[in-house]
Amino acid sequence: MNSRANLIFEQQKKHHPAVKKTTALQRIHKLKTLKESIRKHERQIYDALRKDLGKSSFEAAVTEVILINGEIDFAIKNLKSWMHPKRMGKTLSNPFAKNRIYYEPKGVCLILSPWNYPFQLVMAPLISSIAAGNCTIIKPSELSPATSHIIGKIIGSIFCEEEVSCIEGDKDTATQLLALPFDHIFFTGSTSVGKIVMEAAAKNLSSVTLELGGKSPAIIDSTADLRKAAQKIAWGKLVNCGQTCIAPDYVLIHEQNADEFIGLYKDFVQEMFFMGDEKINPSSYGKIVNKFHFNRLKTLVDQAITEGARIDLGGKFDEKAQVINPVVLRQVAPKSAVMTEEIFGPVLPILTYKDLNEAIDIINQKPKPLALYIFSQSKKNIKDILRSTSSGGACVNDVLIHIANPKLPFGGVNHSGLGSSHGFFGFKSFSHERAVVIQSKIDFSSLVYPPYEGKGRIL
Ligand code: NAD
Fold first, then answer.
1. Measured between alpha carbons, how far is 102 from 113 in angstroms, rounded to an integer?
2. Which of 67, 71, 116, 402 to mutate to test the pocket of ligand 1 (most atoms within 8 A of CB)?
3. Residue 198 in contact with residue 209, Cβ under 8 Å?
4. pLDDT digits (tens, 9 = 90+) for 176-224
5. Do residues 148 and 119 make contact, with C-beta atoms less than 8 angstroms apart?
6. DSSP codes joined into one string, 422-446
7. Looking at residue 403, what DSSP letter applies?
8. Quick check: is 211 catalytic?
9. Residue 54 Cβ contacting ligand 1 at under 6 Å
10. What residues pair up with 327 in beta bridges, in sequence order?
11. Does residue 213 line the site of ligand 1, with CB under 6 A?
C-alpha cells in the first residue's frame, strides 16, 4: 500500500468535517484563488501541453484553459443558489411540513483522469468537488507527465494536502488509491478501466461518476449542407489529432453524397491542418501521445486495409515525430477493429447507406456512444434519429460544442459513462442530495400510528 496515499486519505478524512461546514463565500474564495493560480502558471501550462501533446498555445487556451476559467466563473456566479436547500412539493398526508433537498458534500473524493485534455479533465471535476465542499485527491495521467507536474504545482501552491492533494503515478498508484474507501470516485478514461474502477468502488460502496469513451458517430443525411458538415467534422475529428473523447469517430453518409463530402473534407484538412502538399502545419496539428498509441493506430489502419478498406487520404506515419497525417478510409468491413474499437486518433472511416434506417441500425448495434452528431436540414430526419438512438450528448449541425456549455450536463450513458459533469451537474455529482422534512406544529402523522382498530375509515 502506498503509505503517502494512505496518510493523505486519513488526513483528509479528519479534516473534512471542517470543510463540510464551509459557506458559499468561503468556497468561492477557494475557487478565486484557484483561478488566480492558474493565471499565474498559464505560460507553464501551455509549455507542458506542448511538451506532452504538441498542442499550440492557442489550441491549449481554447480547449483547456479558457473552458476551465469559464467553469470557475460559472461556479462562482451560481454557487450560492446551488447550495441553497431546494424547496420541494408537499404531500397531501403532510400538508404543513417543509420539504427540502440539502446538497451535502460527499466527503473525501478521488479524481482519476486521462492524458488527452490533461489539464481540463483534472480541473473541471476539481472545481465541482471544491464547490460541493469536499476534500479531494487527484491522480492525473502518467502519460502527460509535464501537465500532471504543473497541476501538482498549482494545487500545492494554494491548498494544504488535507484538503486537496495531487498524487502523481501510474495505474499501480491508481489501484492503491482505489482500494481506499472514498466517498466518491470521479473517473475519466477508457470504458475498460471504467469497469475496473466501478468494481473497486463496489467493495466500499463508493459512488462513482464515470466519464468514458466510445465510438461517436456523425450521420450526414441527403439534405445536409455538405460543406458545413465537412468543415465541422474535419475540425472535430482532427483537433488534438483525434485524441478527443467526443470526436466524431466515424461518418455515416447517404451514398449519393459520399464522393462530394470526401472531396470537401480533404479541402478543409488542407486548409486547417496542412501548410502545403500534405505537410502538417505544426501550429494547428499536434502529435500522438506516445509510441504505444502511434503503433495502435497504425495497426488499426493496416488491418482495415488488409480487410478490404480503401485509403482515400493520408497514410503518412512519422514514427520519430509521432505524427500521423489525417486518414480517410472507405469500404471498411463492419467487423474490422477500426469499426469495433474507439479510434482515438486522426483516422476517419466513411460508411455509406441508402436508407436512413440502415444508419440508425449501425449505431444501435454498438454500445451507446458518448456523443452523436447529425447533419441534416430535415426536421423529420433529425427528430427520427434523436428518437431512435441514445447517446451521452448530441449536436445537430455541429460537433463538440455541447461540452462548452456549463448549463448542459456532460456525460455518457452505459458504456460511455455514468453520471455527469460541468456546472450544477458536476456540483450535484459531488454532493449527496439529502431529503429533509421539517415537520410543522400542525401535524396529522399520528393518525396512522397504532393501534389501528377503527382507523380504516381514514384511508
Ligand atoms: P485510461 O482508462 O487508460 O486511463 C485513465 C486513468 O486511469 C489514468 O489516470 C490511468 O493512470 C488510470 N488507469 C489506467 N489503467 C488502470 C487500471 N488498470 N486500474 C486503475 N487505474 C488505471 O484512459 P486514457 O488512455 O488515459 O484516456 C483515453 C480514454 O479516455 C478514451 O477512451 C477516451 O474516450 C476517454 N475519455 C473520456 C472523456 C469523457 O469526458 N467522457 C474525456 C477524455 C477521455
1. 28
2. 116
3. no
4. 999 999 999 999 999 999 999 999 999 999 999 999 999 999 999 999 9
5. no
6. SHHHHHHHTEEEEEEEE--SS--GG
7. G
8. yes
9. no
10. 347
11. yes
> Nearest CA to 130 among 30, 232, 261?
30
Closest C-alpha among 144, 166, 145, 146 to residue 154: 166
Q: Ligand 1 pocket, 142 CB below 6 A?
A: yes
Are 394 and 374 in contact, with CB atoms under 8 Å apart?
yes
Distance of CA 202 to the CA centre of its chain: 22
Residue 118 belongs to what H/E stretch?
none
Identify which of 129, 125, 123 has the alpha carbon closest to the alpha carbon of residue 155: 123
Beta strand 274-276 with 279-280 is: antiparallel
Cell of 98: 417543509
Residue whose C-alpha is closest to residue 431's, from 231, 205, 149, 132: 132
Report residue 136 CA to chain centroid gap: 18
Q: Is 141 in the pocket of ligand 1 (CB under 6 A)?
A: yes
Predicted complex ipTM: 0.98
Digit-coded pLDDT (tens) for 216-248: 999 999 999 999 999 999 999 999 999 999 999
CA distance 455 to 316: 82
**Residue in the structure block whose three cell numbers are 507527465:** 145
The answer to whether the peptide bond before residue 334 is cis (omega within 30 degrees of 0) is no
Are the C-beta atoms of 119 and 45 separated by less than 8 Å? yes
189 lines ligand 1 (CB under 6 A): yes
DSSP code for 401: G
The best mutation among 196, 245, 391 to test binding of ligand 1, ranked by most ligand atoms within 8 Å of the C-beta, falls on 245
Q: What's the first-to-final CA gap in the chain, in angstroms? A: 58
| Active-site choice (161, 211, 255, 453) | 211
